[in-house]
Design brief:
Length: 369
């Protein structure tokens, strides 16, 4: 297998990896981006057809390039995908698509990254894959009758994927509510799970335009690891989950979506609710989120829960290793589009400063004869 040395490798070509590349390029740091998708932006292209961003066009752009959409519009998922592809091309990033990193370890003074066809050596590695990429479903999903179509929200594209009959969506957050509104036009639909609440304004209206900058300021500057209230409230807000942004409870009711309690298990091949009802549905869509995606990193840089041990993305125990795009990396806005920029610049500045120190460090004196 061929081995290639690259000074800095960014793993992941989504918005987090591209924004980090922008700041590294400004610092004059050479890098490559390794991305498992076939095209830049595919992580957005592969989402459901009707998806629109919750972020206004004026806040959806990455550093150095505005988003080409009306300021108060909500871009589609394909608009976002095409923007990312244009961004990478505009700044001439060396993005190597279709390259999945299978392992990351340390060999001597360098990092070793194994892919399906090549080994990379690097002085620095920026992990920009995000922390939750593997679809999460409950263990009892395998007990459902084989005739029931099961999809995770990351696999759902459009209603034509479903069988005739009822649809149960498990998880009542943003994904579950959005997809429920998509499928209820052609299927009896149940939305099960704890109600995470909803923001009190319509984001499409005037009040939404007024509230958005205020919420962004709170999430970006107040609920951070640098403030007492952020250190106290941030972890709790993550555990409770995001409130629904676009779809309201009355929208679901008006559309004919029936709310249901949590799914407790399976009986006779059918899903059972906490109130002991059995739903005779032909489709189940798991809107149950994702789990950690770091088993490929063979380095002692994680805590007991599998979360990276870092300070604003900098892994002090493994010099040269960085994470970007994590949930609450520094603030509640760290992993969403309106928060793109600050964390990425911090990581790039730290990496560039370390690079300068090492290049200017005095050479070791020769050993005495």
């Amino acid at each position: 297998m061929d081995t290639e040395y690259v000074e800095t490798v960014i793993v992941g070509g989504g918005q987090a990896g591209l924004a980090t590349g922008y700041f590294l390029q400004r610092e004059g740091v050479p890098f490559v981006i390794l991305d498992a998708e076939e095209r830049v932006g595919d992580v957005w292209r592969h989402r459901w057809d009707s998806l629109r961003l919750f972020t206004y066009g004026r806040y959806a752009g990455l550093p150095g390039m505005r988003f080409p959409a009306p300021a108060w519009s909500f871009p589609s998922k394909d608009d976002m995908a095409n923007y990312l592809e244009t961004y990478a091309r505009t700044f001439a990033f060396d993005v190597r698509s279709g390259v999945r990193v299978e392992s990351l370890s340390r060999e001597g003074d360098r990092f070793s990254l194994m892919t399906s066809d090549r080994r990379y050596e690097a002085d620095n590695v920026v992990v920009a894959t995000g922390s939750h990429r593997i679809p999460k479903v409950p263990p009892f999903a395998g007990d459902l009758d084989p005739s029931i179509v099961q999809l995770h929200s990351s696999e759902y594209r459009r209603p034509s994927q479903l069988r005739d009959g009822g649809v149960l969506l498990v998880g009542a957050g943003n994904s579950g509510a959005d997809i429920a509104m998509d499928v209820v036009r052609a299927h009896p639909t149940w939305l099960a799970g704890r109600d995470p609440g909803e923001i009190p304004v319509r984001i499409e209206g005037f009040r939404g335009k007024v509230a958005f900058p205020v919420v962004r300021f709170l999430f970006h500057h107040v609920i951070t690891k640098g403030t007492p209230i952020g250190r106290r409230k941030g972890p709790k807000m993550i555990l409770t989950g995001d409130p629904r942004v676009r779809v309201k409870a009355k929208d679901l009711e008006a559309a004919g979506v029936e709310r249901a309690p949590r799914v407790a298990g399976v009986r006779d091949g059918r899903p059972v609710l906490e109130d002991d009802r059995i739903l005779d549905v032909t489709n189940v869509i798991w809107c149950t989120g994702f789990r950690h995606d770091f088993p490929w990193i063979d380095l002692p840089v994680f805590d007991e829960q599998g979360d990276p041990l870092h300070d604003r993305g900098v892994v002090e125990s493994a010099p040269g290793l960085y994470f970007i795009g994590l949930v609450f990396q520094y603030s509640l806005s760290s992993c969403v589009l309106p928060g793109i920029g600050r964390d990425h610049a911090y990581v790039a500045d730290h990496l560039a400063a370390r690079r300068r120190r090492e290049r200017h460090a005095p050479a070791a004196a020769p050993a005495a004869a």
